[in-house]
Amino acid sequence: MKKILVTGGAGFIGSAVCRYLVKDKQYSVLNLDKLTYAGVPASLTEIEESPLYRFEKADVCDKQAVSALFADFQPDAVMHLAAESHVDRSIDGPAAFIETNVVGTYTMLECAREYWNSLPEEHKANFRFHHISTDEVYGSLGAEGLFEETTPYDPRSPYSASKASSDHLVKAWFHTYGLPVVVTNCSNNYGPYHFPEKLIPLVILNALDEKKLPVYGKGDNIRDWLYVEDHARALVCVVEKGTPGETYNVGGRNERTNLEVVETICSILDELKPRASGSYKDLITFVTDRPGHDRRYAIDATKLETELGWKAQENFETGIRRTVQWYLDNAWWWKPLRESRYSGERLGNSDNGVRVQKATS
Known about the structure:
40% of the residues lie in helices and 17% in strands. By secondary structure, it is of the alpha/beta class.
């Protein structure tokens, strides 16, 4: 593969993929992004001057624009990351999630199918449509067990339901039309260039601003954390080596409760940028839980590790320290976002996040 069409490449995971493809793989990349509130062109500063990188502002729901880009760029593969991705925002406004995640995926599939059908036979077999999804489509785990590729779908939020729908569409285009697709479902990502509405950057930046650090419910919901650059390598590995029609789960094998994550960030900040008095843990405040909040996610990445040879390079301890240090060193990136797009307000709860209990830890 030499040319990759990436959708949503100005987003958190998409920008990591674009940077890896251009800097490490030396592939030609066309980044198609609508530039919604979470699209940040500054995340691509490292590669924006590269002759291998090209950006086009377009909506994945715009079939005419997408088809024209396929015809012009002639990609060897598509990596479809464009999506509305914040659960809390899906609770407040699900329509955008249906439009982008479901209709947008359908549009991308149809444009890819038309392009793929026009290719010479020797090129058709090598083409790939890679759909990037989430472990949230599987629902909630109990205290034991892991999500596997065969785990039944059980989405619980408008976001996860929209991603489950798009997963099914992608598989249907494989079975019905023969389009060579691969699907990945990942655990929670974290790392540099993460939009400030998500837990880890929100906690880091609120702490630096001496604001309360909100923890949903009792803080005992568990997530499996995956460093974003490890994820980018996994995604490229799958688009290069994955078997058409197959799903691959991507996880970091780093389960932590939300409270453990927040307390870890506080401990690192206490070391790297101490407060004038006290610990950052003093800012932790428990808030009303998110509606339909899944209890636990955990990924079994054995298939990806054994069949394709991928392995995460960061564990949570190394990755979270790198992440905190990055935010300390790169206020140029996040300050404009905090000032103009998202300042840390509660989303996804009609009671506006009434504080119900002060942390004692």
